Amino acid sequence: MIVRTLEETRGSERETVAPTWTSRRLLLRRDGLRFSLHDTTIRAGTETTMWYRHHVEAVYCIEGTGELQDLESGRTLPLEPGTLYALDGHERHIVRAHTGLRMICVFDPPCTGQEVHQEDGSYPLLQDEGATQGRRAEEES
């Protein structure tokens, strides 16, 4: 069983700070699950271009307002508490934060915790040496 608090991640190697966002990675690849779980805040008045070409991401907004622009279709959708979006087609997108946004994000494959957006907006596909990938399957056999 894994038990961790958001407070434990603050200021630790599980917290990544970028110019427009801060992500606290509650679950990472090294935890042995098939996904990672992040509590991410996006600063008010910012715009972040992203493209998860190596990952599928699901995002659930729990605080704030903003908008999501799908760069594939041109469609723009409002973001507010209770809104979920899933980038199941690896869509290039922009998140604009009208107020501070707080999002719960799930990534598959799981992130290592070292990822930051590259120039094209994507995360690289990293493998960390401390990973216990497949631990759950090993425990069950």
In short:
The protein is mainly β. The protein is about 5% helix and about 40% strand. The strands form two sheets. Strands 1-2-3-10-5-8 form a six-stranded antiparallel β-sheet, with no helix packed on it.
Protein architecture, described:
The chain has 141 residues and is mainly β. Helices cover 7% and strands 40% of the residues. The protein contains two helices and ten strands. It has helices spanning 6-9, 135-140, and strands at residues 15-17, 21-27, 36-42, 47-51, 56-63, 66-70, 76-79, 84-86, 92-97, 101-108. The strands form two sheets. The chain has a six-stranded antiparallel β-sheet, with no helix packed on it. Strands 4-9-6-7 form a four-stranded antiparallel β-sheet, with no helix packed on it. It is globular and about 40 Å long.
Identify the CATH class of the domain at 27-114 and 131-140.
Mainly Beta
CATH topology of the domain at 27-114 and 131-140: Jelly Rolls
Structure class:
mainly beta
Secondary-structure arrangement, i.e. CATH architecture of the domain at 27-114 and 131-140: Sandwich
Enumerate the strands of the largest sheet in spatial order, edge to edge or round the barrel: 1-2-3-10-5-8
Q: Which regions are unreliable across 5 or more consecutive residues at pLDDT < 50?
A: 129-141
How far apart, in Å, are the first and last alpha carbons? 17 Å
* Tally of individual helices: 2
Could you spell the SSE succession in H and E letters? HEEEEEEEEEEH
- CATH superfamily annotation of the domain at 27-114 and 131-140: Jelly Rolls
CA-based shape? globular
Q: Which assembly state applies to the chains in this document?
A: single chain
Largest sheet: 6 strands, antiparallel
How many strands?
A: 10
Q: Mean of residue pLDDT? A: 86
Radius of gyration in whole Å, from Cα? Answer: 15 Å
Question: Helix proportion of residues, in percent?
Answer: under 10%
Residues in β-strands, percent = 35-45%
